[in-house]
Predict the structure of Transmembrane protein 53.
Amino acid sequence: MEDDDIEYDITFPSPGVGIDDSDEELDEYVIEGESKEPVVFLIGWAGCQPKHLAKYCKIYEKRCITIQYIPPTDVSYINPKLMTSLATKLLDLIKDFNLEANPIFFHIFSNNGSFMYTEITKVLTSPGNKYKNLQVKGVIIDSAPGKRRVLRAAWAFAIASGQRGFARYVAYIGMIFYLLFLRVCLYFKMFFQASGSANPHRVYEDIMEDKTRWPQLFIFSNADKIIPPSDIIEIAEYRKEEFGVLVETLRYEDSDHVAHFKDHPESYTVQCNAFLDTCLKLGSDIDCLEDVDQ
């Protein structure tokens, strides 16, 4: 669907189907009589295509409404100030579909999805915002966040380009120079903008100091060539120890960047649904936002 320059897809729950109909292990997470279906925002990575993100709907299709969105990389890295407007439009979908009373989750991927998420949380925690009554319950963070590393980011883009062999390395070298050029341009832009403006180079710091306090599930791997596990372990421990956030982690040994579900579909699916179940059972017993002026 397209709504005022924002393209998204929405799916509604289909009881009786799932990632593997012969596997009854997931049925325990389908809560009979659940009055309001959870809403899961799936926010994709750089280079992600709708068909890639649609596969993750299988995780939730028995019990959840999913809204799938891929932040445009040209906005993320060339015109990031537009990210705040896109974040507002995404949140407006909740009202458009009359889902204000439904529990809300975010499932985000890599630094591109994380950048979109940080702008959403800034909107949700801003004084006097119109979304203060939304029932956000938790976030799942896949393969993110990672600290600023031009070489790793360039390699991620080279992979996303779909090139193979020698052509991939040409794309990699070209992307290094391109990202360095963008970084210089962005720094000049930021110099003339307010300090709180959207900045893709502050994703790691923004998630670390995020004012929200709802539970977080970090999914990552020792084999990730783009974002090392040490980045994610550091931020997970910091959120838990500094702010008392309920943090869970799912760590794999062999899956590549944003490939954990592809390589481990059963354990990934079970863990995501178990996390939703934990958050829903917490209900209102947990403070999800740092105190902000309303």
The chain is about 40% helix and 15% strand. The two ends are 33 Å apart (CA to CA).
